[in-house]
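## Example record

The block below lists the input lines for one assembly entry, exactly as stored, with component labels intact.
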Amino acid sequence: METKSIMIVGVGGQGTLLASRIIGNTVIAEGYDVKVSEVHGMSQRGGSVVTYVRYGEKVWSPVVDKGGADLILAFEPLEAMRALPYLKKGGKLIVNTQQIDPMPVITGAKEYPAGLCDTLKEQADTAVIDAASLALEAGTIKAVNVVLIGVTAKNSAIAKEKWIESLKTTVPPKFLDVNLKAFELGFAAG
Amino acid sequence: MKALLLGNAAVTRGAYEAGARVVSSYPGTPSTEITEEAIKYDELYVEWAPNEKVAAETAIGASISGARAMTCCKHVGLNVMADPVFTASYTGVNGGLVIAVADDPGMHSSQNEQDSRHYAKAAKILMLEPADSAECKEFTKQAFELSERFDTPVFLRLTTRISHSQSLVELEERTGGELKDYNKDPAKYVMTPANAIKRHVVVEERSKAETAFAEATELNTVEDNGAKLGVIASGITYQYAKEALGDKANYLKLGVVWPLPEKKIADFAAKCETVYVLEELDPFIEEHCKALSLKVIGKEAFTMLGEYSPNLIRKVILGEAVEETPAADIPVRPPVMCAGCPHRGTFYVLKKLGLTVAGDIGCYTLGSAPPLSSIDTTVCMGASVSAAHGMAKARGEDFAKKLVSVIGDSTFIHSGITGLIDVVYNKGIHTVIILDNSITGMTGHQDNPTTGKTIRGEATKQTDLKLLCKAVGIDSVRIADPFDVKNFEKIVKEETAKDEPSVIIAQRPCALLKTVKYTGRAVITDKCRDCKVCMKAGCPAITLRDGRPYIEPTQCNGCGLCVNICPFGAIEKEDA
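Predicted structure tokens for the full assembly:
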């Protein structure tokens, strides 16, 4: 199998790191070689964050290059737009609708681009997901990342049960029910 | 058993399996997790030291006394520990001694892009460079073996992409590393000139033996694919090259990056028509090749700047351009202080007062970014206090009274205290603000001497910052809450006006600490006159909606700073 590349983008503090680790654990359980590249330190402080998951028979580079992502999971529309050059031709983009203004927008130096999700749809095969609403429906806004994992699972070649097993090993037992619900809602929306 | 491990965690695992007993470090991205992970192993004594020099000396002492020991740092941390490390090269070791250093090409979280390999050459210390997590573990174990075999400290060089990517690692048992006998040996461990002259002879002999080892070891591997193209690479660039070129190239993968195996390199180059040296940052291997009169292509085709990538290698070597969607012209998203960050109150006041601010290394360096735009200088750990002192001495009293230095609690202990002693001793008068947020923030919440807890969370003596400043001769030390902006502003004005040096301890814990429980959230009421003063605080939760300030409820954590800032009492707290 050719190496698959997933890119997870968002804003520091949104839980992208956990999402990349859940995806990583799932593909390992499938017996693949895997590399997960993370970002720590300064950029985590509310800045753009990017993590990569690559899996296949043998994975060399832990990072995804421009034009190399089979799937981009974007926790925020502006970050989806920023990551778009990394999407492979024919790749899939999943974008959460929750807008978070960056500091240049807050200070008024720049404007948040209008109609981003529509623009993204025009440029790529895009699934637009209101993950915050679905997470609330599941029981907590904190489950946004698990909703998006559900959407990712729907768009992957890996069986749904494997994703659920991986979730069970990653999430603390007392939050399992709400997270399973969030996963199902994401899966159905994907 | 196989596990998906961060490169850093794999280094820790390697140290554990190799029987290491002591780990002492100061946190620094991207190296921090090596030491943090060590608390998972009861067999390891592990500590956060006040700075890298102390950490290295602790590890050196442990090694001399017979234990396998490790110290870990980021590239600039190696500058801080350089003094003991250069001489430890002369003393050699008793128990194996490993110095893990993580470079940060691309400066994801650093103030410069220096290449640590130069230290290996300069200090004449063997350096290994792993290319994935499995090698991180294996090379760490080898590093301990080699340290004892050649009687030398050994560097383990990492880069951000190796430290911070996870890949599969085979876990093994802990073996070896028994405490060796300790015998007094001043000729080896007391580096007076007379002894050091003799030890230098040993170092040079050792270097020759290490070079012979580098020629023979399987850590340096040749992969012959019968290609005309040859690639010499180590660490992450080896992975990028394999990704980009596959079996279109022959590879010389260097696991030992110092000393370099001259014959092995020359033999490899002789069998290829064209040879590229792929290395991020400086042309370290390339210059060595060129000194051997080998025709290799390196920096003239690539770059000294930032990171390499498979696409870059495809483009340069294969002439392939990847079809890309052009980047959209959209607003950047720089890192910002979190909602509820205690530093925001401090910088809001400093900006308002228009003071010159000598800054330091930590989350609060973000006080340089708009809209707070407070910080004038950031050089290295501890440089705020001493640089401000230099400014004050150069420009005189009037300037000094409009000048402050700002430094975090951990950074102050790291190397700010020596600057403060200089200020007192040499009759400086500027005001130092210690940003005491009860934790080492930027690197992800490490305890330090001011928190009263060890790395394992055990209670310990807490360094009292106020007493410490008093003890070095600061008469005026005041503690203030930076969220009480009116009082904080008053105190800053009073202290900077004084004809003596002073310290303000701006005390409020990091909002991300579990012990900090802000409740509710702030809302803007009808009393708002749209003056936008609240927006000058640069809080990520306060944004504009329809041209007026609006507090985003999902971003607000209810810290209440904006309530204190609003001149019209138009912001109120409500239950979430």
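The CA atoms of residues 41 and 176 of chain A lie 29 Å apart. The longest helix of chain A spans residues 16-29.
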